[in-house]
Amino acid sequence: MPGTFHTYRKVVALTGPVLPVVSFLGRLPTAMCQLGSLLLVAGTSGSLATAGLVGGALAAGQTAGGPLLGRVADRHGQRTVVLAAALVNAVAVAALVVAALGHAGTLPLALVGALAGASVPQVGPMARTRSVALARRSGADERLIGAVLSFEGTLDEVSFVLGPALVGLAAALAHPAAALLAAVALLAVCGTWFALHPTASRVRPVSRQASTVRTSLPGAVYALRTAMVLQGAMFGASRAGITALTERLGRPEQAGLVHAAMGVMSAAAGLAMAAVPARITLTARWRAATATLTVLSVPLLCVESLWALYAVVVVLGVAYAPHLITIFGLTERIVPESRPAEAVAFLTSGIVGGQALALAVSGRLAEGGGAPAAFAVAVVAATLCAVLAWTARTTSAATAKTAGAAKPDAAAPPDCARSV
């Protein structure tokens, strides 16, 4: 354990102590806006259907806009792109609040919601890409690279636990609009700060010549992206099942706490990933994580009490962060050096898209078949993740990248090439 703490001190030393704090606060609005917009529109319009459409438009905008923003950042650098996105996103979220409080129609609300989703500044993916780039330039070994990914993954997990909790607190004490206005302030201040931080200039955009060449992606990348969509589906289905079960038990207020408990355990498991021996390859970790996801998700089908629900989801949370962190690690090693931010943004968008789709489908199933019907979607998603992990050829893809990077005329220096 002391060795793990020492490793994380080295991670923080790469960027300085300020950047992790700023990037964490810059991620919170993303975690706050989905639930915040749902509560705000439902409360002002009196229609859950309208709220669902606006939430769907926001998720669709983020799913489509994230990879595009990442691609632009790869070509032109993070500073200008993140700065512009943060300011546009702050304006869009503020406009959504004004439109909802002004009782605008469904179509205007959905359009503003789509803009708010598409302009999310992707602070999480950009921070991950920036930290890995700084680690590579410092000559970091694979253990430190893994610790960087674990640290960033933990910040994501904590933000997605704390964000909805802050929204719920604001809604209970004041109004959902207060939570979204707080998100606007965080976007304007911390998004701008993250964009202008000195480390942004150290992530150099690809050359103009390289940016015009559309480098092909290894097939394993698409398997990893599909796995992220399935992971998002697990999140969405689990949320629908937890909501349905707590409502049936007459304790709907416990749904958020159950999610928080799962997220806290996931974050703890993510931090512990830095202690995994380097000799255990990323491919082996991916397979182990998906097998664990499948085994630990099956008990969801049998849960009938609140305390059993807490026990099952807390244990299940142990597998979430390791799965996510491993996918990010594999992607970082096999995508072309000219497309890191785009690749990471694709993964994040995949989670959002998969969660939104599964939440809609499993929510409908839960209405007719109860919580087990929704949880069954999560089990199926976990099983498909395991199938992908055991059939995708990630090792060969990473080896091919390593061989290419080792050539004298390769775009990346030799220390950027790592095998799985």
Q: Explain this structure to me?
A:
- This protein is mostly helical and 420 residues long.
- The protein has helices at 2-15, 18-45, 48-76, 78-101, 106-118, 123-137, 142-173, 176-196, 208-211, 219-248, 254-272, 282-297, 306-334, 340-369, 371-391, 394-405.
- The chain has 2 domains: 18-203, Growth Hormone, Chain: A, CATH 1.20.1250; 219-412, MFS general substrate transporter like domains (Growth Hormone, Chain: A, Up-down Bundle).
- The protein has 16 helices and no strands.
- It is globular and about 55 Å long.
- Which ranges are low-confidence, i.e. pLDDT below 50, for 5 or more consecutive residues? 208-213, 399-420
What class, by secondary structure content?
mainly alpha
Number of helices: 16
Indicate the percent of residues in helices: over 70%
What's this, in brief?
The protein is mainly α and 420 residues long.
Please outline the helices and strands:
Blueprint lengths: L1 H14 L2 H28 L2 H29 L1 H24 L4 H13 L4 H15 L4 H32 L2 H21 L11 H4 L7 H30 L5 H19 L9 H16 L8 H29 L5 H30 L1 H21 L2 H12 L15
Main attributes?
Growth Hormone, Chain: A, mainly alpha, 420 residues, 16 helices, 2 domains, disordered C terminus, 80% helix, globular
